């Protein structure tokens, strides 16, 4: 056939709004069999035909159609497609679900190291230079000399050498005259690391002779003997760990006794962690039943979600380990998600101790290079287990059998960048499309997840007992209002004080927990515990320092700050909190002999500091550990018998409908650190709101009652899981312009809703626009509008947002305003 053309539909790797769609390119005949769905290609783009990297999403054949306006693909970048067809489907699905850009979704699936960057190279055209007619300026001469000297160089390096403005102007002009030529090349940003190794090249029979020939050089002889035992050794290792300097190595090199070879090496982030074996445990009855049931589902490729609700210390990790083992035995691969790798060193240790190898780690602390290497280990099949935070859910496995989300209630599973996905949603998608089992685990499942259990969408399995027969800790609530009445103004109740004392005498360890989030933004009464809330939203009001007013963070209603408590008329109506540092000083002054350590963001900002503190806590050097949220997760220290929660109220009064849930979770999680060994654990929980259902039920460790109460309230105020929230944020440098822009969008949303017959309900659907809780960040102003939708209008609302903020964005929002859409916000900030 004459006019048959192969057309590639591509996504250009560029985050400009206008480019967020598929573009057609002709595939030149020589590439027809190479360029497929998922191949990365180089394409010319725009008027200047600059080269861009692009991803092929589809290949079509066109017959007798006019393709004269289309450009041609320049060439493929890789030999094999970099995205599978499954992944392309997932990217399209993510775009539809989160209203993000294609390229943003692609960037979730492919690590930064793979995504290429365009580099510009520059060189001099000698002929044109010789023929030019005018006198050059000094700077022109300097630049030309510099470039000629180097041959062909990256333009970036000119910017380092000369001032940007000068270079920019000069090279533009010289380029127009053809004196210099600029070439665009797309290049991988990450270099593959090559390591140099040394090995003996002397055969066995010549060995003795060679050894004798260097009698005078004792160290060279020693190196020979050293290498004799080994195949090859890294130069860096010889130099750094074994004291063989370069001259010694060069000595043997010059005599042709050794040679140096180069091998590609992968950066291994686990390299410097020591490996302690963690042998398989005989599962107890509760564990066994669950392991058997889920293994059966894995073996039969069933699409199934399990929620393991197991009290703290019930041995969930052992279940995960055995499930992963069974998955590998089936020749399949597994993903284990943890809230934060650096905060869950014990979990990682156990997996490494059990499986030794084949584990790849994905987390935010990796350099681009490390991330790229880990990704390639997974893609090439070298690793069959991935452990990691959020991003690990995108691990490029091709035979996925099992996904585990440990501590599934943790908020770190929600991405704060676009696409604002929740790991659980991606995991559900992969489970469904790759026939694999999803396991969620928590001692305190999120209300949404447990609700899915009630609705039989997920299968809930319970672990009611601690694994090593330890008893659950005993939680005692201390009413801080009574302390004040009795004249104790200290941050420690008398009870907590004396328990710490006792614990120190018994040589047991103590954890003191202080929550920093939401610290002193709300107003409460120290005499009666009353907290001022919005009448409409049941949300604690936020105190605004500048206006000295109280404002509801959800609906925007303003209230005047009371001078005395509306409940008990006390003048003690302001809340004063303390930070961890101050707390550490206080505790040290109360217990001068105790060894105290602090674990918070400040104390652990140095690399490795977190692990160091944990190690010395484990070894028993530290008596009292003071910490923030960092110490609530997965720590298993048998010698901790006392946990003190300094105040449950900071969290309780967060302007967030999930505040009671978070308090409940946090109290149970941090309490769960106590009494995991032979001795019983005790928890002292201090609060100004002892009657709050969240505190009372946490003290009883009664998850089910808490769940029921919470669900009742969510239903009454129409919060998730009974509604879906959508949050739209506008950020801009010009306060007024940003506000007007979001107001215009809000009006449009209302207008369209009205035209679709929603008239009376508008006030129950659209809230705002309001100032963001963090109103001014880096001189940019932030406003948001919150939408509350139900099953029947969700699709409509999504379509409206898509129309206003994506498809017709240019019409409604100027380019200097950043818009962000969150389809299921966990926090509204
Ligand atoms: N079958 C078993 N036999 C003996 N010990 C076990 C068994 N299963 C688990 N353990 C031990 O019980 C302790 C608690 O287990 P693990 O840390 O897995 O609890 P968890 O459910 O993850 O708790 P948390 O939710 O508090 O993190 C660990 O020290 C673990 O080694
Ligand atoms: Zn009061
Ligand atoms: Zn309100």
UniProtKB/TrEMBL annotation:
Residues annotated as domain Helicase C-terminal: 560-712
GO cellular component, one term: primosome complex
Enzyme class label: isomerase
Enzyme Commission number(s) of this protein: 5.6.2.4
SUPFAM superfamilies recorded: P-loop containing nucleoside triphosphate hydrolases
Keywords: ATP-binding, DNA replication, DNA-binding, Helicase, Hydrolase, Isomerase, Metal-binding, Nucleotide-binding, Primosome, Zinc
SMART domains per record: DEXDc (SM00487), HELICc (SM00490)
UniProt keyword annotation of Isomerase present: yes
GO MF term (any one): ATP binding
Catalytic activity: Couples ATP hydrolysis with the unwinding of duplex DNA by translocating in the 3'-5' direction; ATP + H2O = ADP + phosphate + H(+)
Residue sites binding Zn(2+) 1 per the record: 525, 528, 565, 568
Entry note: cofactor: Binds 2 zinc ions per subunit.
Pfam families, alphabetized: DEAD, Helicase_C, PriA_3primeBD, PriA_C, Zn_ribbon_PriA
Binding site for Zn(2+) 2: 534, 537, 552, 555
Annotated signal peptide: none
GO terms for biological process, alphabetical: DNA recombination; DNA replication initiation; DNA replication, synthesis of primer; double-strand break repair
Annotated NCBIfam families: priA (TIGR00595), PRK05580.1-3 (NF004066)
Quaternary structure annotation from Swiss-Prot or TrEMBL: Component of the replication restart primosome.
Name of this chain's protein: Replication restart protein PriA
Organism from which the protein derives: Serpentinicella alkaliphila
High-level lineage: Bacteria, Bacillati, Bacillota, Clostridia, Peptostreptococcales
């Amino acid at each position: 056939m004459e006019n048959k053309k192969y057309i590639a539909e591509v996504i250009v790797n560029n985050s400009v709004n206008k480019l967020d769609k598929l573009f057609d390119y002709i595939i030149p005949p020589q590439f027809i069999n190479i360029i497929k769905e998922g191949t990365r290609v180089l394409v010319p783009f725009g008027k200047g035909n600059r080269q861009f990297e692009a991803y092929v999403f589809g290949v079509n054949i066109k017959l007798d159609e006019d393709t004269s306006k289309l450009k041609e693909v320049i060439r493929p970048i890789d030999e094999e497609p970099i995205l599978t067809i499954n992944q392309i489907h997932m990217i399209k699905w993510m775009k539809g679900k989160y209203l993000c850009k294609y390229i943003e979704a692609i960037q979730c699936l492919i690590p930064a190291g793979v995504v290429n960057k365009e580099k510009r190279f520059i060189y001099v055209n000698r002929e044109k230079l010789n023929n030019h007619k005018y006198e050059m300026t000094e700077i022109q001469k300097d630049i030309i000399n510099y470039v000629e000297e180097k041959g062909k160089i990256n333009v970036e390096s000119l910017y380092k050498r000369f001032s940007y403005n000068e270079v920019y102007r000069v090279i533009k002009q010289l380029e127009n005259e053809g004196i210099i030529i600029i070439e665009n090349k797309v290049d991988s940003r990450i270099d593959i690391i090559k390591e140099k190794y040394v090995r003996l090249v002397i055969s066995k029979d010549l060995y003795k002779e060679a050894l004798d020939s260097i009698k005078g050089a004792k160290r060279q002889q020693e190196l020979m003997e050293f290498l004799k035992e080994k195949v090859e050794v890294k130069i860096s290792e010889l130099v750094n760990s074994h004291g063989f300097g370069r001259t010694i190595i060069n000595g043997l090199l010059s005599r042709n006794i050794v040679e140096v070879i180069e091998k590609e090496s992968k950066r291994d982030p686990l390299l410097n962690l020591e490996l302690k074996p963690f042998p398989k445990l005989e599962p107890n009855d509760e564990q066994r039943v669950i392991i058997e049931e889920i293994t059966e589902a894995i073996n039969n490729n069933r699409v199934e979600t399990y929620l393991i609700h197991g009290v703290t210390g019930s041995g969930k990790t052992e279940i995960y380990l055995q499930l992963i083992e069974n998955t590998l035995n089936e020749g399949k691969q597994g993903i284990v998600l943890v809230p934060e790798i650096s905060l869950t060193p014990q979990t990682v240790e156990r997996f490494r101790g059990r499986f030794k190898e084949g584990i790849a780690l994905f987390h935010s602390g990796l350099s681009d290079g490390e991330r790229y290497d880990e990704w390639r280990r997974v893609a090439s099949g070298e690793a069959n287990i991935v452990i990691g935070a959020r991003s690990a859910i995108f691990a490029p496995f091709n035979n996925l059998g099992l996904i585990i989300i440990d501590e599934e209630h943790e908020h770190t599973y929600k991405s704060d960048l676009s696409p604002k996905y929740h790991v659980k949603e991606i995991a559900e998608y992969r489970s469904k499309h790759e026939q694999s089992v999803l396991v969620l685990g928590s001692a305190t499942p999120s209300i949404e997840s447990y609700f899915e259990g009630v609705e039989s969408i997920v299968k809930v399995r319970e672990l009611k007992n601690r694994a090593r027969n330890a008893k659950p800790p005993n939680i005692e609530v201390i009413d801080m209002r009574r302390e004040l009445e009795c004249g104790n103004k200290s941050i420690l109740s008398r009870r907590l004080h004396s328990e710490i004392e006792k614990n120190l005498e018994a040589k047991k360890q103590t954890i003191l927990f202080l929550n920093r989030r939401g610290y002193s933004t709300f107003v409460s009464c120290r005499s009666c515990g009353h907290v001022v809330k919005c009448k409409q939203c049941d949300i604690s009001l936020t105190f605004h320092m500048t206006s000295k007013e109280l404002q509801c963070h959800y609906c925007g209603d303003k209230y005047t700050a009371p001078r005395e408590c509306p409940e008990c008329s006390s003048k003690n109506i302001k809340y004063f909190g303390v930070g961890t540092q101050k707390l550490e000083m206080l505790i040290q002054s109360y217990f001068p002999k105790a060894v105290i350590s602090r674990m918070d963001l400040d104390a652990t900002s140095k690399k490795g500091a977190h692990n160091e503190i944990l190690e010395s806590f484990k070894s028993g050097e530290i008596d009292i550990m003071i910490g923030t949220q960092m110490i609530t997760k997965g720590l298993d220290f048998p010698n901790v018998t006392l946990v003190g929660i300094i105040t449950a109220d900071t969290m309780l009064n967060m302007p967030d409908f999930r505040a009671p849930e978070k308090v409940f979770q946090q109290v149970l999680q941090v309490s769960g650190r106590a009494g995991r060994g032979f001795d019983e654990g005790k928890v002292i929980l201090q609060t100004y709101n002892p009657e709050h259902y969240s505190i009372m039920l946490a003290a009883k460790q009664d998850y089910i009652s808490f769940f029921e109460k919470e669900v009742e309230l969510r239903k009454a105020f129409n919060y998730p899981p009974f509604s879906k929230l959508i949050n739209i944020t506008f950020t801009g440098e010009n306060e007024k312009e940003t506000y007007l822009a979001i107001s215009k969008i809000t009006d449009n949303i209302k207008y369209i809703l009205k035209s679709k017959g929603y008239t009376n309900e508008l006030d129950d659907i659209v809230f705002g626009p309001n100032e963001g809780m963090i109103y001014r960040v880096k001189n940019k102003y932030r406003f948001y509008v919150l939408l509350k939708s139900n099953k029947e209008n969700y699709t409509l609302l999504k379509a409206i947002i898509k129309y206003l903020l994506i498809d017709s964005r240019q019409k409604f929002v100027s380019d200097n305003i950043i818009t962000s859409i969150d389809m299921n916000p966990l926090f509204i900030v």
